[in-house]
Design goal:
This protein has twelve helices and 14 strands. It is of the alpha+beta class and 340 residues long.
């Protein structure tokens, strides 16, 4: 196979049709991250017909005295095809080293066994970037999905309808309203949010192309909640959500989430990823969610009610190229606890 740096059109076409294609491997995701300190680089292997057979979009970022390479939900390859997997990983390592990375951080996603990663020279990382555990909702007709939900979620969906919450697909102008509500959400639940321009850029890159939607819920002319939902192939992801402190009795957050699930289903998606819950076994989650509110525990209480199943990815793994710089990075991580 020949090595190439595919253009965005060819790369995205490959990602969209591949069984392991993922939102975070689309060229638009790399473009989004490029505005916030990351450098995207794509590499691929071409077969004899010139078609992409495997590939990866890496993201590079500097840290004091060095640079890291990050590969989220990749490489995009059939992991059961060991020769092809090894070939693309060789190209990935060469690319990472050529770009000056001290190490490669990989988060390959779900369905990958730890042995597969350790056999490729990776070691478990002390630091995650994407949340390793999530809830997947299997999409079906409305009645089937409603039956799977817990009683509180069904009741709040119906209450939002009775309370007059109206749903609309948000325009570019509505991103300002979403950002204002998101600021309230971040303060209330004590979690960090991106700068407003990040969500504006995300809208510009994904919504006009049909890869995402901004759904806003309002009542009596006032916006009360919003969600960004993304899709690739038959998968959808709920990445960003916001709910106002005002008129919470209207349950607008349930209305927009239900609309997001239906939007994904109606566009051919079969799974809806709630994207991020505490990294604990399900018995621990169920035992502690009523008394915990730190980190992702607050959102777990909301997400658990939608009738999904808890799944865990392969987690985060590192391949070290420069041990002194990796040790420096790890030391800084222990001091600050920050993600890259």
């Amino acid at each position: 196979m020949n090595v190439t740096a595919p253009d965005s059109k060819k790369w995205d076409a490959f990602v969209r049709q591949h069984a392991r294609g993922h939102l975070l491997q689309l060229s638009a995701w790399g473009e989004l991250k490029a505005d916030y300190g990351w450098k995207p680089v794509r590499v691929a292997l071409l077969d004899e017909g010139g078609n992409v057979g495997a590939g990866a979009q890496l993201l590079f970022r500097r840290f004091p005295l060095g640079k890291l390479a990050y590969l989220p939900y990749g490489p995009v390859v059939d992991w059961n095809n060991r020769p092809l997997l090894e070939d693309i990983m060789r190209v990935v390592h060469q690319t990472a080293k050529l770009n000056g990375a001290a190490f490669l951080k990989i988060e390959p996603g779900q369905g990958i066994e730890p042995d597969a990663l350790s056999s490729l020279g990776f070691q478990p990382s002390p630091q995650t970037v994407q949340p390793p555990r999530t809830i997947l909702v299997d999409l079906a007709d409305n009645d089937t999905m409603l039956k799977r939900m817990n009683q509180m979620t069904r009741r709040n969906i119906r209450k939002s309808e009775k309370q007059g919450v109206e749903i609309r697909e948000g325009s570019r102008r509505d991103v300002d309203s979403f950002n204002a509500i998101l600021h309230e959400t971040g303060e209330r639940q004590a979690f960090g949010v991106h700068v407003p321009s990040y969500y504006e850029k995300a809208y510009d890159l994904f919504v006009p192309q049909g890869d995402a939607v901004l759904l806003m819920g309002s009542a009596e002319g006032r916006d009360l909640a919003g969600v960004f939902v993304f899709k690739v192939g038959q998968q959808a992801w709920y990445l960003y959500g916001a709910s106002s402190d005002r008129e919470r009795q209207r349950m607008a957050s349930f209305a927009v989430q239900w609309a997001g699930i239906q939007w994904a289903r109606d566009r051919g998606c079969v799974t809806y990823d709630m994207y991020g819950i505490p990294d604990e076994d399900e018995n621990v989650l169920e035992a502690q969610f009523e008394t915990r509110s730190d980190d992702l525990w607050g959102v777990y209480r909301f997400k658990r009610g939608w009738g999904g199943r808890v799944v865990r990815s392969a987690g985060t793994w590192d391949k070290i190229y420069n041990y002194p710089l990796y040790s420096l990075y790890s030391f800084g991580l222990r001091i600050t606890g920050r993600k890259p």
